[in-house]
Amino acid sequence: MPYTTADARQQLLDTLADATEQLGSAVAALSEAYEALDEGTGERLEHVLFRPVQAAYGRAQRTHADFAGRHGLPEREFTPAIAGAPSRGVKGFLDDAVQAVANADTTLATLQDSMLPVEVGDPQLRAGLEDVRSRIGDVGGNARELVRTIGR
Fold first, then answer.
1. Could you please report the per-residue DSSP string of 11-67?
2. Based on the structure, what is the number of domains in the chain?
């Protein structure tokens, strides 16, 4: 079966959608963690984790929608993710968020390494992927630092 540009673009969009959903899961987990923290620690979580992940999530959605629109492909509506059970506690929610962000980053890195964004993408798409990855680059380290200071 021949490999078509349309198929490749759809594959690219599907992969970006997977990463976007993973970021949505991270946002949900961070929201739950925030609710369980005191005000000061919650503000730190918001500043070093929630805002970057939420911004990356929004950028990923825009990148997906813009690329789909430029190439006449169906757009996808991303619904808010549901976080896990509250019994997991703050550390459990943070672990879930960090894992989801790591999964999204790996998905995007694999996509970039595949050369699909170069072969069938465009400069705006490549810039969007790079922007998303740059926003989530420090999440793992920032989460470890936050967990280390919780309860002090």
1. HHHHHHHHHHHHHHHHHHHHHHHHHTS-HHHHHHHIIIIIHHHHHHHHHHHHHHHHH
2. 1
**Whether pTM exceeds 0.85:** yes
Structure tokens at 117: 């964004």
33-79 pLDDT, tens digit each: 999 999 999 999 999 999 999 999 999 999 999 999 999 999 999 98
pLDDT at 23 over 80: yes
Domain span holding position 131: 5-149
Query: Encoding tokens for residue 5?
Result: 């540009």
For residue 152, pLDDT beyond 80: no
Amino acid at 55: A
- Provide Rg for the chain, Cα atoms: 17
Amino acid (one-letter) located at 120? V
**What CATH code is carried by the domain that includes residue 105?**
1.20.1260.10
